[in-house]
TrEMBL record:
UniProt-recorded name of the protein: STRA6-like
Basic and acidic residues compositional bias, start-end: 425-439
Record keywords, A-Z: Cell membrane, Membrane, Receptor, Transmembrane, Transmembrane helix, Transport
Region (Disordered): 420-439
Lineage of producing organism: Eukaryota, Metazoa, Chordata, Craniata, Vertebrata
Keyword Transmembrane set for record: yes
TM helices/strands, residue ranges: 6-23, 30-48, 68-87, 166-187, 232-257, 269-294, 323-350
Organism name: Danionella cerebrum
GO molecular function, one term: signaling receptor activity
Matches recorded under Pfam families: RBP_receptor
GO cellular component: plasma membrane
Alphabetical list of InterPro entries matching this protein: STRA6-like
Record PANTHER family: COILED-COIL DOMAIN-CONTAINING PROTEIN 180 (PTHR21444), STIMULATED BY RETINOIC ACID GENE 6 PROTEIN-LIKE (PTHR21444:SF17)
């Protein structure tokens, strides 16, 4: 299977390589023209396939259109991008537009790939409805008056409706969660990059301050793939967990209220809230009793608190003995709460490779943080080295030493241009550091 996955990855890479080559080539007219032709070929073939055979077994008559609409959107965007590249290159050739210096421009390349549109879809719920209908037929064919299927069919019908609506609602919430997470990752990336530009590495582990050059270069090939994979898995897991919580919410709160069982529901909620209040009150009572009866008086009236010294030792032992059994029961409940909190936080952070979901001391058992996190840090360090505005200006100043000294006019013009760029970059930042937009 590993070989099959490798061959599949190579196939996808070969298929999409012309897009990147046409976007990154210095021959803008040739790259734009070939990009337009290659994009049109993909677009026409996909449109012909979608029009001639649009249906599918899962999503119905418009399955391919529903799944491939992001792919078509990306192809139209690429087509417009290549046309823009051709028009810009022609304008520069006709002297209608000034040519930009490549060292002063940040090239952002976007990777477009077809991703399977994950969803439980109506197919699963339709199968659930089919199962319900089959049970109804079995119940009608039975001669017995009291058949178990007659009691099972209403529950199946109710569960089908609840699950369908819950899945649609959680799809929206999980999508919003994934989008906000993506923007949060971009914000963290921007903050970390600016701190590295200023030479601040305190937020990085000490072993990552001087990484190996070979490992840092290899991190470039790993980081993007790891980040995309963890983001996709995070979306799927968060979606499923939210779906389970939605089912518990509907069966625990919504349905009892709809069925007129609001009084029993309020009594159960009242018992739960009263139990929580009593637990909190008993914890406070323990602290108050210890403060009043089992601590020695203050050494000085100016002291804010009593010293850590036991008073009434025998009474304290009796107090500790009787509360021991209560604390055991409270510890059992807190253990369950700890497990639930760990599951919720771990599920929420499963797609983040810059944070670990394991406890302190067991971080190495988390492959996302131990491997993916190292790839991210080393990629940040290498990108800082290659695209730091200060280093770019320094390299450009060093190139001036290679300029022919017999041409003083060219040398003076280059020096004046570099001085203006450095001054404008320093004026636009609060930390006296040039930013990405200034260079």
């Amino acid at each position: 299977m590993a070989i099959v996955y490798l061959v599949g990855a190579l196939e996808v890479g070969v298929a999409y390589l012309p897009f990147f080559a046409c976007l990154s080539t210095p021959h803008r007219v040739l790259g734009g023209a070939l990009g337009v032709l290659y994009t049109l070929m993909w677009l026409l073939v996909r449109l012909y396939d979608t029009i001639t055979c649009p249906s599918g077994m899962i999503l119905g008559p418009y399955e391919k259109l529903i799944i491939l609409w992001p792919f078509f959107l990306c192809l139209f965007f690429l087509l417009g991008r290549f046309v823009y590249i051709i028009v810009k290159a022609i304008r520069i050739h006709l002297k209608l537009q000034a040519e930009e210096n490549e060292e002063d421009v940040y090239f952002h390349q976007f990777r477009y790939m077809t991703l399977a549109d994950y969803r439980l879809s109506d197919y699963t719920f339709d199968e659930l409805d089919a199962l319900k209908d089959s049970l109804a037929e079995i119940a009608s064919s039975c001669n017995e008056t009291e058949s178990v299927f007659k009691y099972l069919i209403p529950s199946m019908n109710e569960f089908s409706n609840v699950a369908r609506k819950s899945w649609m609602a959680t799809t929206i919430f999980s999508t919003i969660t994934s989008v906000t997470y993506t923007f949060h990752v971009l914000v963290c990336y921007r903050k970390h990059l600016k701190r590295l530009w200023r030479g601040q590495k305190s937020f990085l582990p000490e072993k990552f301050h001087n990484p190996s050059p070979a490992v840092s270069m290899a991190a470039i090939t790993r980081y993007s793939g790891w980040q995309i994979a963890f983001t996709l898995w995070g979306y799927l897991i968060v979606h499923f967990v939210q779906f389970l919580f939605a089912l518990m919410f509907v069966y625990g709160i919504v349905l009892p209220i709809q069925k007129g069982h609001i009084l029993s529901w309020l009594s159960n909620v009242g018992i739960i809230l009263l139990t929580i209040f009593i637990v909190i009150a008993l914890v406070a009572v323990q602290i108050i009793l210890v403060q009043v009866f089992f601590l020695q008086p203050k050494l000085s009236p100016e002291d804010k608190e009593k010293p850590l010294a036991i008073n009434n030792r025998k009474a304290f032992h009796c107090f500790n003995y009787f509360f021991f059994f209560y604390n055991v029961i409270m510890g059992l409940s807190n253990c369950i709460l700890r497990l639930l909190s760990s599951c919720i936080v771990g599920t929420w952070l499963v797609s983040r490779i810059d944070r670990t979901i394991m406890q302190r001391g067991y971080e190495s058992m988390d492959p996302g943080c131990s491997v993916g996190g190292r790839a991210r840090v080393r990629w940040l360090l290498l990108y800082t080295l290659l695209r730091n505005p200060s280093l770019i200006l320094l390299r450009k100043r060093n190139k001036l030493t290679l300029v022919d000294n017999h041409d003083p006019l060219l040398l003076a013009r280059a020096l004046f241009s570099q001085t203006q760029q450095a001054d404008s970059a320093e004026d636009k930042t609060d930390e006296k550091e040039p930013t990405q937009s200034d260079v």
